[in-house]
Amino acid sequence: MREYIIIGAGAIGSVLGAYLKRKGIEVILIDENKEHIETINSQGLTIETPTGSFNTKIDAFSTEDFMEQRKESLKNVILSVKAQDTKRALMPFIELLDEDSSVVSCQNGLTESLVSEVIGEERTIGCFVNIYSDYLSPGLIKYGGQGSLYLGELNGEKSDRLYKIKEDLSKWGTPVITDNINGFIWSKLAYGSVLATTALVDEKMATILSLEQYRPVFVRIAKEILCVAKEENINLENFEEWDPYSILDFQINSKEVEEVFDNLVSRLKTYTKVKSGVWRDLAIKKKKTEMHSQLTPVFERAEKHSLNLPITRKMLELISEIEDGIREMSYNNLDILKRLT
């Protein structure tokens, strides 16, 4: 039986780990939140779903404790940490990786390039993940909806190891193998930036995105990022109700674009997770978000193609000010962005 080491037992890592373990796959969770680790080891990991909760007994360690007792190599690793923590979280485990090891970058942003810098492209597996879940408290994760998960080799090959990982992750849901993982990752960058922008207001994502007066803001942010992807020769992919080419190819107030956002609002209303992870970092955890790490590589690529991205840059500036405690969440923040459209 294959064993999975999941580095990062937050919202996504815990959900995947719990479902794999529940269905008989060996899993070890690694996280730096000591209280979370202690609770999982003493009381199990609880996943709260729209249809009820379940508890799974699963081994959990801090990085330091795991490295002290582990001597054999790691074959299957799922990296599920914030984008800004990618290299720091992965570095301690390099000595336990061999030529047959693989690391799935189950994260937000352009993290596959960071992982491959550390361990090599041949051991890196790309992953697009869109799971609606939240860390509520030590040992407790709220899972609001399955969403999507795509796996892909960075070179586009549909390898045997992808099918093995897909088979295991089918214990969670319906993973899909793709030969264009970058197309999904860039498409989600635009989608995720739209959801992150809703965190400028202390309100539900669906409520904010349904307001017609602010639609041009969200369309412009998505379009700015997608224009960078276009210049990078990325073949963008649709997922769920998100259609990136409708946003790239049509005007802001076009019927096609309105349908994309109307469909997005309808989907968001079906989930129990009603606010973004960025909102939770700002309002609940009072910590830095991962938006800087997600968007900095986009800005670097944009400069290479002489693209400015003024709305996206301003959005990140406003988020930074909320992080620093010098700005409040309010609709005034969206008004500031609207004046730039």
Could you explain how this protein is built, in words?
This protein is α/β, with parallel strands linked by helices and 341 residues long. It folds into two domains: 3-179, 3-Layer(aba) Sandwich (Rossmann fold); 184-338, N-(1-d-carboxylethyl)-l-norvaline Dehydrogenase, domain 2 (Orthogonal Bundle). It contains 15 helices and ten strands. The protein has helices at 11-22, 34-43, 63-69, 86-90, 111-119, 160-169, 181-197, 205-209, 215-231, 244-249, 255-268, 277-285, 291-304, 310-323, 331-338, and strands at residues 3-7, 26-30, 45-49, 52-56, 59-61, 74-79, 97-105, 124-137, 140-153, 176-177. Strands 1, 2, 3, 4, 5, 6, 7, 8, 9 and 10 form a ten-stranded mixed sheet that branches. Helix 4 links the parallel strand 6 and strand 7. The radius of gyration is 20 Å and the shape is globular. The N and C termini lie far apart (54 Å). The model has no long low-confidence stretch (mean pLDDT 95).
Question: Helical proportion?
Answer: 40-55%
Could you describe the largest sheet, including whether it forms a barrel? 10 strands, mixed
Compute the average pLDDT: 95
DSSP helix count? Answer: 15
What structural class do helix, strand and pairing data support? alpha/beta
CATH topological fold name of the largest domain? Rossmann fold
Query: What's the CATH first level of the largest domain?
Result: Alpha Beta
Order of helices and strands: EHEHEEEHEHEHEEHEHHHHHHHHH
Low-pLDDT runs: none
Q: How many strand segments?
A: 10
Shape estimate: globular
Name the CATH homologous superfamily of the largest domain: NAD(P)-binding Rossmann-like Domain
> If classified by CATH, what would the architecture of the largest domain be?
3-Layer(aba) Sandwich
